[in-house]
Amino acid sequence: MIQRYEQxxxxxxxxxxxxxxxxxxxxxxxxxxxxxxxxxRVPDRWTVLAGGNNILFTRDYEGLLLTPVARGIECLEEDAxxxxxxxxxxxxxxxxxxxxxxxxxxxxxxxxxIPGKAGAAPVQNIGAYGCEAKDxxxxxxxxxxxxxxxxxxxxxxxxxxYRDSIxxxxxxxxxxxxxxxxxxxxxxxPGLGYGDVEREVAARGGATLRNIREAICAIRxxxxxxxxxxxxxGSFFKNPVVExxxxxxxxxxxxxxxxxATADPARVKLAAGWLIDRTGLKxxxxxxxxxxxxxxxxxxxxxxxTGAEVIAFARRVQQRVAxxxxxxxxxxxxxx
Length: 336
Ligand code: EPU
Known about the structure:
With about 325 residues, the chain is α+β, with helices and mostly antiparallel strands. The protein contains seven helices and 20 strands. The protein has helices at about 30-40, 95-100, 195-205, 210-225, 245-255, 270-280, 305-325; strands at about 5-10, 20-30, 45-50, 55, 60-70, 75-80, 80-90, 125-130, 130, 135-145, 150-155, 175-185, 230-235, 240-245, 260, 265-270, 285, 290, 300, 335. Helix 3 (about 195-205) crosses helix 4 (about 210-225). The longest helix is centred in the last third of the chain and has 19 residues, at about 305-325. The model has no long low-confidence stretch (mean pLDDT about 95). Uridine-diphosphate-2(N-acetylglucosaminyl) butyric acid binds near residues 129, 273 and 295.
């Protein structure tokens, strides 16, 4: 059922907890509801606001926000090796992970505790601890606002990349994701290769699904601020991918600099958190905005900050990194 709100305060609908307003917000469940909404009148301006965990409102939104609220999870196929689930866009991502772990299904345990809704997972191809949503997403169901029809994209059509997909590019402003299909495995396939994961899992008695989930949750809780307590949107910046020559120049001066190979041998991924940290900004604050003291990639609302204050602060951080290292870091968060 559609629920419509006019002139709504967005504070409780964005994890940064900025106090901007939207002219209109519609909660929807089905593609059919979207069809009747768009068939009646195509709004001049609209976007999707799901969990609000990766968005920064820098001003009031003068258009229509669409929020998916359907929370069904349905099993479409199952065999000895795997299960295919259809997950509606309004399901909390971590509820899906918890359920998978309870049912002995492998594939998303490393993505435990990522805030946000399942429908948002393919947009930025959420990822953590060596796992990305694209590893399990088999197809994505959308409503196409131009044709007013439903549309299904197979994984290969989604152009998934590091924090990237077709939904941030060609299909941005055109489709609304209504559900995803994820394939999870029944056989153990632990991914312990990233950072402290192996040690934390061993400390809990070995690589069971439950131990991995608990280890990931503990690592995240230790490093990342809880959005229920401190307004933030996770990593505010993306890790930059630079030319190999740039990485080599920096490594000559900073041999301890973290760097990761990418699919393209000519390009290397750097850790934006390390770069910001090395400019001395970790824990630094200006007024109501600051950098988290345990993870420099995360900007925090220290209480009552406006979106405009956050973005102005972020621009200064980008400038400091560019001056110090000659590297541009882009925002990961969607700026509106
Ligand atoms: N580092 C520092 N100082 C910092 C932060 C990081 O020196 O303040 C160094 C770390 O020591 C490490 C490297 O930078 O050597 C990478 O740090 P970390 O493992 O914490 O991961 P990240 O690259 O900073 C990415 C994701 C996170 C995800 C973690 C774990 C992005 C933009 N961020 O962070 O995702 O949880 O890896 O996989 O890719 C998010 O997207 O919101 C998010 C939290």
